[in-house]
Design brief:
The protein is mainly alpha-helical and 114 residues long. It has a domain of 67 residues. Helix content is 54%, strand content 0%.
Length: 114
């Protein structure tokens, strides 16, 4: 229970520190030190697909439920729906490192085409 509360507290702090550009859905500047993770096809991407779009798709929402359940129960979820998983990974409170982004992308890529 404590890790869930800590994660939710961290995400609350994350929202308080989100730059105005991220809140207006403006694209975040690319970080040259962080390699991008390409999607295997035109499927969901941790780099370009918004959290809102991931949640609206039942298949990608199931991946998020499996890999990041605290995100789906986060009180401020509506405020970060315009951001990507890469965007929120820049905040330590999100507890989303490069390894977790790679796993998410692999899980998104494993979703069969309709």
């Amino acid at each position: 229970m404590r890790p869930v509360i800590a994660a939710l507290s961290g995400l609350s702090i994350l929202l308080a520190t989100v730059p105005a550009a991220a809140q207006t859905n403006a694209p975040a500047p690319a970080d040259a030190a962080t390699p991008t993770i390409p999607a295997a096809s035109p499927k969901a991407s941790v780099e370009t697909t918004t959290i809102g779009d991931l949640i609206d798709n039942p298949k990608t929402k199931a991946v998020l439920q499996q890999d990041m359940p605290a995100l789906l129960s986060y009180d401020g979820l509506d405020q970060i729906k315009g951001m990507t998983m890469r965007d929120i990974s820049k905040f330590p409170q999100a507890d989303l490192d490069q390894g977790k982004l790679v796993k998410l992308q692999k899980d998104f890529d494993a979703i069969p085409n309709p």
